[in-house]
Amino acid sequence: MKILIATYWLIPHVGGVWVYIQDLKASLEKLGHEVDILARHPDENSYYIVNTGRRVEKKLFRPLIEKKIKAVYASQPIPIDPWIVDQEIEFCSYALAASYLGLRSYDIIHAQDVISSRALWQIKPDGVPLINTIHGCLATDFWVSLEGQTPSDSIWKYACAREYYGATSSDLAVVPTQWLHKTLGSYLVPGDHMEVVPYGMNIEHFLQRTKERNSFRLPKDNCNILCPARLDKVKGHSSLLDALYLLKQSRTDWRCLFVGDGSLREELEAKALHLGLSPYVVFAGSRNDVPALMRQSDIIVLPSLNDNQPYAVMEAQLASKPIIVSDAGGIPEMVQHGQTGLMARAGDSGELSRCLELLIENKPLRNRIAKNGHSWGLKQWSLPAMTDRIEELYGQLRSNKHIRKALHPPKHPAHHGSKICTYFRNAYQMDIPKSFSIVDDHIVGSILFQANQS
Questions:
Q1: Is the pLDDT of residue 365 over 50?
Q2: Fewer Cβ neighbours under 10 Å: the N or C end of the chain?
C-alpha cells in the first residue's frame, strides 16, 4: 500500500504525535508499505511532504481564501469572532495545499488530528479511504486551559463542533484510550465509529537512546526530579511548582528539571522566582536528549490537568524510572497507584508534594515501582502489536468490510468560492472535488447556515 500520514501540526517537533508518526511510518515500511508524511513546515509559512521535501507556500492560497471567507462571514447578522475566522482560513489553506501536493496516488490516508482529518475528508478523491488517529481532545484541553473562566458562546460552540466534525470526518477513528473514547462520545461522536488501539513504542531504539552521551549533567548529591512536558496550562506545571514549594519546607535535598518549552515559560520562571525555588529548579527548554536525561534522573513527574496517553509515562516506565502522575484523562489506564507509579489528584499540589516526598525518602519503594513499571511497559507498549492492528484496520477499509457509522447533517446548497476552486484547478491542475466549498462544507459555514434557516 501507498499510505499518507497527515497532520496539521508542525513537523518535526518534540512531542508524542511526532514519535507516533515516526514509529508508525518505520514499522509500516518494514512491512513493505510506502509511506509519506504531510505536515506544516517549521517555517509556519508552507506545507510539505516531510520525507521528500515537496513543498508549497501558504501564500499561494491564503490571500484568496481569506478575502472570500471574511466577506462571507462579514455578511452574517451575528459577528463571527476573528479567532474562528482565522481558524477556518488556516483549515481551508491546509486542504488546498494537500490537493496541490496530490492525494490521488494514495491507497489510504491516515490523519492525525481533527483539523487535518476534516480538511482531507473534504478535499480527497472519492474512493480513497481515510482513517484518523485522535491523540487528544482539543475542546477539553481548551476548557481546562481557561482555569474556570467562561469562553464566549460562539468560540465554545465552534470548539465542540470542530471536535465532532473532525473526529467523524473519517471512515473510522482510532483512539489510544478508553478515556478518549468516552470523552469524544460526550461530543456526540458515535461509539461504534471509534476503535481503541493503545500506543506502542520502538522499545529497543528508546533504550539505546537512554545510553547516549549528553552535555547536561544533573547533580549526583541530590534526588533529581525530571518533568518532561511542553509548557502548556494543561500539563500542570504551575501545580508542580506549588508542590515543590511545599516540599521545600521540609527538605531541600532535591532538584527539579523542567524539559520543554512553550508560551508559559516566562510566567513559570517568574513564579519559581517568587516562590524562592530558583536554586532548586531549572528550565532547560526544548531538548532532544530526554531519554538520556531520564537515565540520569531519580524520579519522573507528570502533573497534567488533562492528558490522553502521554509518551512521557511510557518512556519513564521503559527507562525503569519511578513516576508520579496525576489522575487526569487516560493516565489511570497507564499507571496502577502504588504498583507501577504514584498518582495524585490533578491540580492537588499538596497530594503531589506528599508523593514526591515519599519517593525521595523511600529508595526501596522507588526501586520497586521502577521495576514493576518496566515489566508492565515491556508488555503493554508493543509497537508491533499497534502496527499490526492499524494495518488490519487499513485492510478492512480498503476491502469495504467496514461500514462508516457517522453521518453528517446536510450542508447548505450554496458553494462559496467556486470560482477560486476553478482557478486552482485550471492554473495548477489541482484535483479539487466539485463538492468542495471554501466556506459551506466547513464547520462554521454549516453552523451559520443551519442557524439562518431555523
A1: yes
A2: C
Query: What ranges do the domains of the chain cover?
Result: 2-200+384-453, 219-380
Q: What is the mean pLDDT of residues 386-402?
A: 92
As a whole number of angstroms, the distance between CA 56 and CA 336 comes to 47
- What are 207-222's pLDDT values in tens digits? 999 999 888 888 888 9
Environment class of 32 (CB within 10 Å of its CB; exposed 0-12, middle 13-18, buried 19+): exposed
Look up cell 502522575; give the residue: 325
Strand bridging mode 172-175 / 254-259: unpaired
Binned at pLDDT 50, 70 and 90, residue 152 comes out as confident
Q: What is the CATH number of domain 219-380?
A: 3.40.50.2000
At the top level of CATH, the class of 2-200+384-453 is: alpha beta
DSSP letters spanning 111-173:
E-SHHHHHHHHHHSPTT--EEEE--S-HHHHHHHHTTTPPPPHHHHHHHHHHHHHHHHSSSEE
- pLDDT over 50 (residue 453): no
pTM for the predicted model, two decimal places: 0.92
The answer to whether domain 2-200+384-453 and domain 219-380 are alike in fold is yes
Is residue 146 packed enough to be buried (19+ CB in 10 Å), middle (13-18) or exposed (0-12)?
exposed
